[in-house]
Amino acid sequence: xxxxxxxxxxxxxxxxxxxxxxxxxxxxxxxxxxxxxxxxxxxxxxxxxxxxxxxxxxxxxxxxxxxxxxxxxxxxxxxxxxxxxxxxxxxxxxxxxxxxxxxxxxxxxxxxxxxxxxxxxxxxxxxxxxxxxxxxxxxxxxxxxxxxxxxxxxxxxxxxxxxxxxxxxxxxxxxxxxxxxxxxxxxxxxxxxxxxxxxxxxxxxxxxxxxxxxxxxxxxxxxxxxxxxxxxxxxxxxxxxxxxxxxxxxxxxxxxxxxxxxxxxxxxxxxxxxxxxxxxxxxxxxxxxxxxxxxxxxxxxxxxxxxxxxxxxxxxxxxxxxxxxxxxxxxxxxxxxxxxxxxxxxxxxxxxxxxxxxxxxxxxxxxxxxxxxxxxxxxxxxxxxxxxxxxxxxxxxxxxxxxxxxxxxxx
Length: 411
Known about the structure:
Radius of gyration: 21 Å
Domain Major facilitator superfamily (MFS) profile: 14-411
Shape: globular
Largest sheet: none
Membrane topology: Multi-pass membrane protein
CATH superfamily of the largest domain: MFS general substrate transporter like domains
Number of helices: 19
GO molecular function: transmembrane transporter activity
CATH architecture of the largest domain: Up-down Bundle
Strand content: under 5%
Main location: membrane
GO cellular component, one term: plasma membrane
Distance between the termini: 22 Å
Number of strands: 0
Order of helices and strands: HHHHHHHHHHHHHHHHHHH
């Protein structure tokens, strides 16, 4: 971010910091606040199994589709206005979901939310790149930590709030953070528009060729594969880990729920440590090795000796998603400008989520066909190993622009 006025630049960075924090918080709290309330909602109106299945399938689908569209939105409307609309969609969806009168209203509100989240996911690394190019590791730590907190906090308080004030309040209360987050982005969008008008700059700064070029670059594919490995293990675990533990380790459903919370909680220390290690110290390949080996040992332990130490296997499996903050940090470090960051973030997340949405479904179908969890756990082992070759590419520390110039000429 550049400005001739240091005070204006400082105010802009403060506004951006507040906006990034509230955007990150809203993206995950919107997703994590619904499922604990299905019983309470079902007491008021019918929730067909098909609709619940769609609500579970829609997030990665929307993340893939709207993540793919995010680069075009940013190109057309600018970074700040796109962030404003994405967060506005989340806020509207949260309010609509709290006001739903039937299952289809709940589904529609959720779809609006997930569309906004899909765009917001892509924009966060680019916002950091634009406003804090000198603090990518620190700001990635801030917003990825906020995402981790807002993932495990809503399930803890959703039911108590519903018991005290009703499920509608429990769902709608999260809109407060999204609505508050609109204020800084309104100001920053107006400032960006005025700055562009003052210097007669077109608000379409990104060449449409940038995204197309990424298909030919190993770094872009390595980031997409890493994102797939992290998100597929996470989504499969949230969907099936409790049942796997009950069926194979013999734990009670209550203990399985606690172990799932442990799986989610492992992401918090990773979000605090990983961005700094990657941005400040350039530590990449050792983190890939740790994540991959932990994933193999965790899934392998559940495969061969599930009842011996289920807490250990879950902790190890929960270590693999440390690749998520690693990818978020690397997206900013492997590009020169925030415009290229949008394209790279869109590429990695849309492809990663696009393939991820098939993994939990495939795991369920495989279990139904075989009556065993052996095949699904082998899949998790294979996905854990898949991250290693991607790590070799990302560890080379080349920006996508450099990679293109070495292979194809001027960017």
